[in-house]
Structure formats: C-alpha cells, structure tokens
Write a structure and sequence with these properties.
This protein is of the alpha+beta class. The chain folds into 2 domains: 94-254, 3-Layer(aba) Sandwich (Glutaredoxin); 259-434, Tetratricopeptide repeat domain (Serine Threonine Protein Phosphatase 5, Tetratricopeptide repeat, Alpha Horseshoe). It is 47% helix and 12% strand. A 7-stranded mixed sheet has the order 4-3-7-6-5-9-10. Helix 8 (285-298) runs antiparallel to helix 9, helix 9 (302-319) packs antiparallel against helix 10 (324-334) and helix 10 runs parallel beside helix 12. The chain is globular.
C-alpha cells in the first residue's frame, strides 16, 4: 500500500516511507510525511518511538513551541561562546548583506536595530527547502493582515543573490496559491510577486544565522523568531504556528512567562519520552509503564494528564497490553479534538496492519474516526479523517463503505491532497473487483 506524503498546512517535497523498527525495536507510530501531519499536532511525542522522515534530507523536528512541523535539518552547531539566545533575550541587530525584494540588491550591509513598539518576525529559509517554500503563502498573508500595524517580516537566506533572484522569478505552484486564494481567483504569479509584501534577503556571510540560529541552538528551517515591541525575543518556532502568538504580541496580550513555563513542561515530557523509549529498547516494559504511572500520579494540570495518557496508550499499544482497550476508550470518550481522535485511529490501523490487534480496539478506532467527523473541522482535515476511516473499514472487509468514504475524501480535498488520496481508492476498487470475480 502506498503511503501519502503528508504534513499539516505546509507541504514539503519528497516521498515518505514508514520507518519500521526491527523485530524487537519500538516501532514508529505511523504519522509519516506531510499531509498526515494534521494527525500529530497533539500526538507529537510519537516520534520518540522511531525516526519519522519526510524524505532523505528532511525530518520532523520538534519546534520550541512543542508542536512538530516539517523542517529541513541544518548541519550547524551552537558555539560554546556567549549565552544561549532564548525567550526573553535581547534580539541581536540584523546585519543583512543584500535586501532583494524590494529593492533588488540594495542597500548593502544594512543593520536593523529594532524600533520601540515595532514587531519584527525574523525567518530563516532557503530556496532548496520544501517546507520553507510552502510557508511563503502563509507568511505573505500574515504580512498583508498586519499592514500598517508596525509589523515587519524579514526572511533570511544564506544563498547568493543570483540563486535567490532565479528562484523569485519562478511561478508559484497552484497548490500553494490555493492556501490563500479561492480556486476561481487564482492567476499565475511569481514568487517575487507573492513575497513582495515582506522582505526577502541574502546574507551570504551568515552573520545573522550565527547571531540567531546558532546562538539559539536551532538546527532546522524554516524557523521564525518574533522580536517584540521591547526588542526582546518573544517566541521561536515554525512559521506555521505564528498566527496566534503574533496576534497576542501585537495586541500586548502575550504572556512570555506563561510560555516559558509551557516550554519547561514540554521539556519534561520530552525527557520522560526518552526515558520510556530507553526502557523499551532495553526490553524493560514494566519500567516503561512505571515511569508513566509515576508521572501521572504527580500531574495536576489537566492538559498534562491527557498528554501522559496518550503517551501511556502508545506504550500499551506497542506492548499489545490488554489494558490498552479501556484506556483508548477513555481517551476517545473524553476528547473533542479531531487531531487526537484521528491520530489514535490511524495509529491503531497501522499497528493492526503490522500485527493484528483485538477486534475491540479496531472497533474503537472506527468510533474514534466517526466522532472526529462530527466535529467542526476544515474540509481538508475531514478528508484525512475519511481516509483513515476508509482504511479501517477496508481492513474489516467493508470495501463498499470504504470506497464510498474514499470518494468523499477525494471530493472534499485540495487537488494536491486528492492526487495523493487517489491511489488508495484505486486499490480499494481493484480489491472489490477481484472479490466480485471470485464470488
């Protein structure tokens, strides 16, 4: 069965393969690639059970905000000199070599000292970075939203002028334009036109990359920094996650201290995930379960409890523990998050493909998908949920229902997603025809 190349609102290029552990290794919980990324916004910790690759050069890197999004890893290392650039640090001046869009090639060596009451988004990108390119419509739309509100967006590439100018002259693919324009309104435009509202720059001496990316120990692009009205770093993360944070920063509602506490909680969860993974790799399942149970016993924040329960379910499913059924039912009953419900259903489907789970778990996964469909989600996400449900029903032998669902999924999807959903529909129809001939 061909896996789709999936990832949230952003699309990166390249094929995706399931990363399967060996016979005695924890497996990746299957949220491969790009468009499927919607399914892991609340299940991001599953990556700790294996390496989820976007393609041979891209990985799903954990962002400082705690959610995963497609990034391209960089071969950079933080210098040991100087303090870590982090939330609350004073933003270094931008020492940019060339400002390309607009005006082309001038001025040279311009330094930007952040003005009081002005918000600047500093983004690092490259022309060869699929997720960076896919972020451009979103960034352009953000700059349009904040026009005249003392918000500037500066995108910095370490590539030379000629390389960037060649890229900017290319037409934007239609599937990217559909992120910001209704299909009927789409007309061909170049990347230069698309990005004309914000600043594209060339910084070949990489001074800004050293001052920001290396100083903050960031190793993946695209990465964005929000510099607030006081000239301090307010946030670091993936451009896909900018919207709500930028709004709060502009409206003076951003709580930097609360965000730092959230980051600390995420770090604690990541540490627990690593400890659980280590226990599983050492064939100590009871230790892995006890680690989570101990964390649950001391957890007070409801959101933290739910994260820990989801991690606990991942472990129980991997171990084929009978108690996974009851826990899965509790999570489904208590969740009103389509991402959680769909992610749980897809995980059960994939693990069931590898080694059969109980029929009760598969039925719970079907129920989880059906519940997710009843929630208010956008058409693209609903298409993914229908695709999950079609996979589950096909596994139960209900091919006619699966075919009908997959047709609905394709009908409600964007052209790009529809193209990737189509092979499974063809596979279902082939299975159905073969069964009819046999009968």
């Amino acid at each position: 069965m061909q896996e789709m190349n999936r990832g949230g609102n952003l699309a990166a290029t390249g094929e995706t393969r399931d990363n399967r552990g060996g016979a005695n290794q924890p497996t990746a919980f299957y949220f491969p690639g790009e468009l499927r990324m919607d399914r892991i916004l609340r299940w991001a910790f599953i990556a700790f059970f294996g390496t989820l690759t976007v393609n041979t050069t891209q990985t799903l890197a954990e962002s400082p905000s705690g959610a995963s999004a497609p990034t391209v890893k960089l071969k950079t290392a933080r210098s040991s000199e100087g303090p870590l650039l982090t939330i609350g640090s004073k933003a270094p001046p931008l020492d940019i070599e060339f400002w390309l869009n607009p005006p082309t090639g001038a001025p040279k060596n311009l330094k930007v000292n952040f003005e009081p009451d002005h918000v600047v988004v500093v983004e690092f990108w490259a022309t060869w970075c699929g997720p960076c390119i896919s972020s451009m419509p979103h960034i352009a739309d953000l700059q349009k939203q904040y026009a005249g509100k003392k918000v500037s967006i500066v995108s910095i590439s370490a590539e030379d002028q000629a390389t960037i100018d060649t890229f900017l002259a290319q037409n934007v693919p239609l599937d990217l334009l559909q992120q910001i324009e209704p299909p009927a309104d789409i007309a061909p435009i170049t990347f230069r036109k698309l990005t004309s509202g914000y600043r594209i720059t060339s910084d070949t001496d990489q001074s800004s990359q050293r001052d920001y990316m290396e100083a903050s120990a960031q190793d993946g692009i695209p990465t964005a920094f929000i510099v607030g009205k006081s000239g301090l770093i307010e946030w670091i993360g993936h451009p896909a996650e900018l919207d709500d944070v930028l709004k709060d920063v502009v409206e003076n509602k951003w709580n930097r201290e609360a965000y730092q506490q959230k980051l600390e909680a995420k770090k604690q969860l990541q540490k627990l995930q690593q400890e659980v993974l280590a226990a599983l790799k050492q064939k100590q399942p009871n230790s892995a379960k006890q680690l989570i149970e101990s964390a649950l016993a001391s957890a007070q924040d409801p959101a933290r409890v739910q994260e820990l329960k989801q991690l606990q379910l991942q472990v129980l499913l991997f171990l084929r523990d009978a108690s996974a059924t009851e826990l899965a039912g509790d999570i489904i009953d208590g969740s009103k998050d389509a991402n959680v419900l769909d992610g749980l259903a897809w995980t059960i489907y994939k693990l069931n493909q590898e080694k059969p789970l109980s029929p009760e778990l598969v039925d719970l996964a079907v129920g989880s998908s059906n519940k997710a469909l009843q929630l208010g989600v956008d058409p693209n996400k609903k298409s993914l949920i229908r695709d999950t449900l079609a996979h589950l029903l096909a596994g139960k032998g209900e091919l006619e229902k699966a075919i009908a669902l997959q047709k609905e999924a394709i009908k409600g999807a964007t052209p790009q997603m529809a193209e990737q959903l189509a092979p499974f529909l063809q596979e279902l129809q082939a299975q159905f025809n073969s069964r009819e001939k046999t009968n």
